[in-house]
Amino acid sequence: MRKSYIYTFLAKTRSYTSCYRNFNYGIIFVCLQIVDLTKTNLKVKFGRKLRQIRRFKNLTQEQLAEAIGVSVEFISNIERGINAPSFDTLEKLSEFLNVSYVDLFNFPDD
User: What are the pLDDT digits (tens) for 50-72?
Assistant: First the structure.
């Protein structure tokens, strides 16, 4: 049974679409998994807060990454809620940005 897989990530709806076609029967199957946008997860909230603090301090992602010893891509991924920082990275962020750990996790009500 030959199958081809097509994966599409739709950023605006945060939906994940997985499609495949069974070539033996000419049937296309589609599965959708949609993330509830009303419930923002912790990584996304943290990333938004980090971006807010970084911009308030007039820092670029490059400057922040260099100061705490991580890649620009990692900072970008944190700010977009894709990755989460380790405790060591949280400590470096808090120290460099001169904010408490509580401030890093103090999110406004959604």
Answer: 999 999 999 999 999 999 999 99
For residue 18, the model assigns a pLDDT of: 45
| Residue labelled with tokens 């599409």 | 8
Other Cβ atoms closer than 10 A to 50: 21
Q: Which CATH class is domain 42-104?
A: mainly alpha
In whole angstroms, give the CA distance from residue 69 to residue 101.
19
Q: What one-character DSSP code corresponds to residue 58?
A: T
How would residue 87 be classed by pLDDT, with cut points 50, 70 and 90?
very high
Q: Is the dihedral of CA 40, 44, 50, 55 positive or negative?
A: negative
Listed by start position, the domains of the chain span 3-34, 42-104
Closest-CA residue to 105 (of 88, 84, 76): 84
